Amino acid sequence: MAKLLYFAGLVDQLGRASEEAEFPPEVTTVETLLAWLRGRGGVWESALRGDAVRVTVNKQFSVPAAPVKNQDEIALVP
User: Are 33 and 22 in contact (CB under 8 A)?
Assistant: First the structure.
């Protein structure tokens, strides 16, 4: 499972500081991860819109095309 970490205002908006998640097969990049998370609807959609967050994968800031795997530690930073 991947470890997802949420920082700063995202903690208040999303109601959690972290979670563990098993990605479906279509989640292979930072971009598809964000789309999957936005698909939860409501506050997820607005909090993670467009360029509202930066993403680190295994403690390295990443571009939208960067790969993600279920074993990664992924942080979302506003």
Answer: no
Task: For 29-64, write each residue's pLDDT tens digit.
Answer: 999 999 999 999 999 999 999 888 999 999 999 999
Q: Is 77 left (phi over 0), alpha (psi -120 to 50) or beta?
A: beta
Rounded distance between C-alpha atoms, residue 75 and residue 78, angstroms: 10
Contact 24, 36 (CB under 8 A): yes
**What pLDDT sits at residue 69?**
96
Q: Which helix (H) or strand (E) holds 46?
A: helix 43-47
Q: Determine the Cα–Cα distance for residues 78 and 65; give it in Å rounded to an integer.
A: 19
Confidence at residue 51, expressed as pLDDT on a 0 to 100 scale: 84
